[in-house]
Amino acid sequence: MTTYAIVDLETTGNASVKGDRIIEIGVVVMNAGKVVEEFSSLVYPERDIPPFIQSLTGIEEEDVLNAPLFSEIAEDVHRLFHNAFVVAHNIEFDLGFLNAEFIRCGLPKLHNPVIDTVELARVMLPTAASFKLGQLAQQFNIGHDKPHRALSDAQVTSDLLELLLNKMKLLPERTLTHLLKVEAKLKSNLRFFIEESIEYHRYTADSEENYQIWHGIPVRKIPPVELVQEEKMLDFDPWLERVYHDKEGLSQVFEKYEIRSGQEQMSRIVYESFNRSEHALVEAGAGTGKSAAYLIGAAYYAISRQEKVVITTHTTSLQKQLIEDEIPKVEQLFSRKLRAVLYKGKSHYISLIHFSYELDRSDQDNYDISLTKAMVLVWLTETLTGDGDEIQLPSSGDQFWHKVSSEQSNKAVQLDTGNSSYFHLAQEKAKHADIIITNHALFCMDLMSTEDRLPIYDRVVVDEAHHLEAVASRHFGLQFNYMELQRQLSQFNELFHIQGLDLPVSDPLLYTQASKCKQWIDEAKDELNTFSRYLFQEVKQHHRKHKTRSDIGRVQYLINQNPLPGFVKTAKEMVNRFLACIKRLIRGMDQMAEHLNPLIHMDDSSSVAIVLSRLDKQKAASQQMIDQLLPFFKMAEEQVKWIEIESEGTANVVYLYSEPLDIAALLKTELFAAKASVVLTSATLTTDGQFNYIRETLGLEQLGEVKETLIPSPYPFKEQVQLMVPDDFPSIKSSPEEFIFSVSEAIYSIAHVTKGRMLVLFTSYDMLRKTYFLLKEVIDPEEFMVFAQGVSSGSRDRLKKNFQAFDQSILLGTSSFWEGVDIPGDDLSCLMIVRLPFQPPDQPVQSVRDDLMKEQGVNSFMERSLPNAIIRFKQGFGRLIRSSQDRGIVFVCDQRLMEARYGKYFISSIPDVPVFYQSTSTLIKQIETWL
Q: Between the chain's N and C termini, which has fewer beta carbons within 10 Å?
C-alpha cells in the first residue's frame, strides 16, 4: 500500500535562503486511504515574525516563545517521511524549507518521490478558477476550519489529494496513456499512479461511452446541433405585454421582479428598429436591466423572422453574463429553445490534429509545455466547445497554443475540418443560431476584412457602444511590437529543424532549403534588433524635449508631424533591410513546400500535411508583416502614426501604432451603410442629454433619421451618492507637486473614514506613480494595502481581485479603470476622481484631430475634447453605484468642476445628486457623518 506524508508549513517568509524559518509544521501520514498518524507543532524560529505573517496566520511572537526549536523535533519529523510520497500544496516551498532545516540539524535531505497538489490540481481540474488551497476546498466543500494553520492545511491537502487521484482513475484509458508521454517533465512523480489507473481500467468494466476518439485522443462526446421546430408566435405587442405584465412572464423568471418601464421601452425600441430596418441610439442608465431588455427584443425578432441577430460587447465579463445568466432566463419566455452561441475567432479553438502531432513529439518539451499538454488532455475529456479560454494555461502555454489552434488550418491545406474540428462545430452552431454573441474586436475585424470572420448577419446590437470608436480605430489601424515580432520569428524557426518534424523524406535539397530559412530568420532578427534599437534611441532622445506619455507611462513619439531630420529616411531603409530577409524567407518556404507537396499522399501520419499547413500559415504571417510595415514610414494624411517605448525598459523594445484619422467615415461605410439595422446602447452615450457627440464620432451624422432614446436610471441616486469637491486644493498649474501632496493627504484622510475601500482614478500615469510612492512612505501596510496600476504587478483583473481580497485597501488606476470595472457593494465606498478626464492634448490621435478641426474652423475643445471627457467622467462615476443597495462618496479633486464655465456640463450629465463645495477638512467630517 502507498504511504503519503502530507506536509504544510507556516514560515516567517517565502525564502529559506534569505534566512526565513519555520514557525509551524503539520504532517498527516496516510496509508490505504486512512490517516495513520498526525503531527503538529509550533516552532521557535530564532527570529522575528513579520506583522504580515502574524496577520495571515494568527501566530504571534508570544505563541512561539515556549515552542521547541526545529532541532528538538527534527528526528521525529524526519521519521514521518520514511518510505512515503511527500505531498504538499506547492512542494518546492515546503520541501525547500524542510531540507534546509534537516541539513542544519545534520540529518539527510529528503529524496522521496513527491506529489505537488497545486500541479496535480492544474492537470486534473484544468478549468478551475483558482488553484489556491482555500478556494479549491471551498469548490469541493472540503472542511477548512483554520486556513493558514499548518495541520488544518495539511488535512485539507490530504482530502484534495484523494479527490484528485480518484478523478485520475476515471479518465479514459487512452488519455492516461497519453499522460505518460509528458509525465517525466512534471514536478510530481505521477507515473506509478497513472499506470495504476490504467490497470484499474483493464480490470473493471467501466464504460467509456461518454467519449469519442478524434485523431487518437479521447474527447467528450459532443451532442449534435439541435434543430428546433419553428412555431407561430403571438404578434409582438400582445407578446411583450404578457412578458412584462403577466405572471407567467418576467415575474416568473426573475426573483423579486419589479416592472421597469424603461426596460420594456428598450425591448420595444430594439424590435421596432430591426423590424423597420432603422438604426437606433439608446442610453440606458444603471439598473435599467439593459441586457435583458435588448435580448427580449432581439430574440423575438430572431425567432419570429428566422433571422440571425448579432450582439457585440466590449468586455468578456458581459459576454459571460449574457450566455450564462441572461439568455437562460430570457429563453423561458419562448415556447422553444433560444439558440445562442458565443462566437470567437479561429485562434480560440484547439485543432486536435495539430495537438496530436505535438503530443507525439514531447521528448524535448520544457516544464510549462509538458504541464500545458497534460492539462489539455484532461480538459478535452470535459469540454463541449474546444475553446481554450476555458483553461488557465501556464506562462509559456500561450505560445504552445499558437501552434495547436485552428488558426493553423487554412484554405491551402484543409486539415482541421469536418466533425472532428471544434471550430467547424462552432461554425455549425452559429449557422443554426438565433443570436450570436461576439466581442467588438472580432466584430470590427469582420467589418474590415475581405474574409468573413462572422456568419452573415444584417441586424446587430452593439452594447458598451461608447467603446466602439476606440476598438474600430485599433482594428482599422496597425499595432506592431518588437516582442511579438521576435516571438513570431522564433516560432517560425521551429519549422526548419527538419530532424524533429518526422517527415518521410530524406531529400538533401529540403534540408539545404530549411538551413537557408534558419539563416534568413537569424538575419531578420539581427536587422529587427538594429532597427528597433535605432527607433528606441531616437524616440528617447526626442522625448527629452517633448514629454508625451501614454496612460500606462510609455514615451510616445508622433511621426506624422515634424519628423526628426533624416529619421524617416533612415527608418525606411532599416525596415526595408528587415523586410528583405522576410521576402527571402517566403521564397525559401515556397521552395520547401514544392519539395513536400508530392509527398502528401504518401504520408500515413499526416505530418507532411501539418508541416505544409504551418508553412502556409507562416507565409501568410510573413506577408502581413510586409504589407503592414512597408507603408508605415510613408506619411499618409489619412493615418495617424506613432511610436512608443518604455523609457527605462530594454533598449530595443518598441511599439508601432497607426490609426485612421477619420474612423467615422469608415464606420459609416462599413457598418451603418452595410447593415439594415444597428442598435447602439450603453449607460454613457449622451453629453448634457444630447447624442450629438456619439453620432458624429461613429459616423451617424448624415444617415437620416436615427432613433434616439435616453432611459434614466431607476436608482435613487440622491440617497445613494454625495458628490464632493474641495475648494482649498492648490493649483496644479502653478504648484503641481503641492497638488499631488494634497491628493495623497486627502486619500490618506478619507481612507481612515471609509476604512479603505477607495478607488482613485487618475488621468496621468506620472501623477499616479508620484502619489503611490508618497502614500507608501506614510501608510503602514498593516493599516492599508495600496495597489497601483502599472506599479503593482498584475493585470487589471488581478489588481481588482487583490483590492477586494483585503478589508482595508486603496486602488489607484488610470484610463482602463475608468470603465468596465465592477466593484459592487461594500468593497467600494469612495470613488476619488483626481482630475476631470480630458485626454491629454498631446496624445497622438487627439493632437492630429485637434489640428485638423482648427484648420476647419471648428472648436475642437467644445466639439470633441469636452464631450469625450464628459462620457469618461460618467463612466468613472458609474464605478461607484452598481446596485440599488450601494452607497458612497464621489470626491473630485478638480475645482474646474465648480469654477470653469464648462463644469456645469459634467454635473448635468450625471444623475441628480447633492453637490458640496467646501474645505477638505469639512468634507471629510461630512463623509464620516454620512457613511
A: N
Q: Is 891 helix (H, G, I), strand (E, B) or coil?
A: strand
**Would you state the pLDDT for residue 806?**
62
Nearest to 275 by CA among 263, 287, 267: 267
639-645 and 555-558: which strand pairing?
antiparallel
- What torsion do the CA atoms of 399, 403, 406, 409 make, to the nearest 10 degrees? 140
Q: Which helix (DSSP H) or strand (DSSP E) does residue 813 occupy? A: strand 809-813
Q: What is the DSSP string of 440-454?
A: HHHHHHHHH-SS-SS
Look at strands 639-645 and 654-660 and give their pairing.
antiparallel
Residue with cell 517533465: 185
What would the pLDDT profile of 835-890 be if each residue is shown by its tens digit?
A: 999 887 778 888 888 888 888 888 888 888 999 999 989 988 887 777 777 788 99
b/e map of 329-364 (b: 16 or more CB within 10 Å)?
Answer: ebbebbeeebbbbbbbbbebbbbbbbbbbbbeebee
Sheet holding 809-813, edge to edge: 785-788, 809-813, 758-761, 830-833, 888-892, 721-726, 915-918
The pLDDT, as a whole number, for residue 782 is: 67
At 50-63, the pLDDT tens digits run 887 887 788 988 99
Question: What is the reported pTM?
Answer: 0.86
Radius of gyration of the chain (CA): 31
Grid look-up 486619500 returns 747
A 10 A CB-CB count for 675 gives: 16
C-alpha cell at 44: 521557535
pLDDT in tens, 290-338: 999 999 999 999 999 999 999 999 988 789 889 999 999 999 999 889 9
DSSP 3-state assignment of 573?
A: helix
Give the containing element (helix H, strand E) for 37.
Answer: strand 34-42
Please give the Cα distance from 648 to 298 (Å, whole number). 50
**Residue 433 near residue 339 (C-beta atoms within 8 A):** yes
Question: d(Cα 154, Cα 466) in Å, to the nearest integer?
Answer: 50
Domains of the chain: 3-169 (3.30.420.10), 480-663 (no CATH), 717-930 (3.40.50.300)
> How many other C-beta atoms can be found within 10 angstroms of the C-beta atom of residue 859?
11
Predicted pLDDT at 824: 45
544, burial (CB in 10 Å: exposed 0-12, middle 13-18, buried 19+) = exposed
Distance CA 436, CA 611 (A): 34
